[in-house]
Design a protein that fits this description.
It is a single chain. The protein is an alpha/beta fold. It has eight helices and seven strands, in the order βαβαβαβαβαβαααβ. Strands 3-2-1-4-5-6-7 form a seven-stranded parallel β-sheet, sandwiched between helices. Helix 5 links the parallel strand 5 and strand 6.
Length: 247
């Protein structure tokens, strides 16, 4: 029986790179996307000849109905779930003094609450089916260094870190591992407003001890480790993949 995976926020950026990596490894993948049908279709085109099959579902991870739609689609198309990559997110332009309640609610709903609810559904499924699953959460380097970053986003991602370590402890007895990746400065669709500023872009680049910005494929490589046989004994880890930015 082939391995299967759910990737939320899979049509662009880190999620897109992860979908391509998983399909290349022969893993069947269901990815969720919010609205970008063009990106969905181009991803289908790029994965068409890979050994793993890809499927998509349009859903808002910031709503319970959207989370339930993803889970139902996964069972319908994949039959079972071995891997969950909670990657969907929002990155709204704001500061502590300008952030609105609506922005705060949206950020927490998509990043923190959506991750909690989908992981709960998938974990129950893994336990019921006796699946020694792998759960990987996309956190952020902003949980270590908040300089110049939207505070609502920092708080939401900090919640992902705590959720990761707590769930690693709770789900470990069932053979399910839970880990998180903390990406550094990687230009993607959701943060394009920030990287459009040449001064900020240079600040992020020069802040890396390697002197370069990151790429989504670097995060997909970390996911590849966490789903490997070699990571069988690795859980509760918060792995920074940030070019040394936060050291």
């Amino acid at each position: 029986m082939s391995r299967t995976a759910i990737v939320t926020g899979g049509s662009n950026g880190i999620g897109r790179a992860t979908v391509k990596m998983l399909a290349g490894e022969g893993i069947d993948v269901l990815f969720s996307y919010h609205a970008d049908e063009e990106a969905r279709d181009s991803l289908f085109s790029q994965t068409r000849d890979l050994p793993g099959r890809t499927y998509a579902v349009q859903a808002d991870t910031g709503e319970r109905a959207g989370v339930e739609r993803i889970y139902a689609a996964a069972l319908e198309t994949l039959g079972h779930v071995d891997i969950l990559h909670n990657n969907a997110g929002v990155f709204l332009e704001s500061t502590f003094l300008t952030a609105t309640e609506e922005q705060l609610d949206r950020t927490f709903a998509v990043i923190t609450k959506g991750t909690f609810l989908l992981t709960q559904l998938v974990a129950k499924h893994m336990i019921a089916e006796g699946i020694r699953g792998r759960i990987i959460n996309t956190s952020s380097s902003v949980t270590k260094d908040q300089k110049g970053q939207p505070v609502d986003y920092c708080i939401a991602k900090a919640g992902i870190n705590v959720m990761t370590t707590a769930l690693a402890r709770e789900l470990g007895p069932y053979g399910i591992t839970v880990n998180a990746i903390l990406p550094g400065a990687i230009p993607t669709k959701i943060n394009r407003w920030q990287f459009a500023d040449p001064k900020l872009r240079e600040q992020f680049r020069s802040g890396s001890v390697l002197g370069e910005l990151g790429a989504p494929e670097y995060i997909a490589g970390a996911v590849k480790y966490f789903i490997s046989d070699e990571a069988h004994w690795t859980t509760g880890v918060l792995l920074s993949v940030d070019g040394g930015y936060t050291i």
